[in-house]
Design brief:
Blueprint: H1 2-26, E1 30-34, E2 37-41, H2 45-51, H3 53-57
Antiparallel strand pairs: 1-2
């Protein structure tokens, strides 16, 4: 039971990371998923993150 729950939690986290990475890539930002971390590089990234509501909401879909 516990192992099944852990698999579901890990799968949900992986889907969330993938959604964040997809939104960033669509915005033209270089993205790499490194384990549990989504690494991004781009000029002006912080400003772009705060201006773009869809980009900020990518990891908050609840799916």
């Amino acid at each position: 039971m516990r192992a099944a729950l852990m698999r579901r939690v890990e799968a949900r986290a992986a889907r969330r990371r993938a959604a964040i990475a997809a939104a960033l890539a669509e915005a033209g930002i270089d993205v790499a998923i490194d384990g549990e971390v989504v690494r991004v590089t781009a000029r002006g990234l912080r400003a772009r993150w705060w201006r773009d509501l869809a980009l900020r909401g990518a990891g908050r879909t609840g799916s």
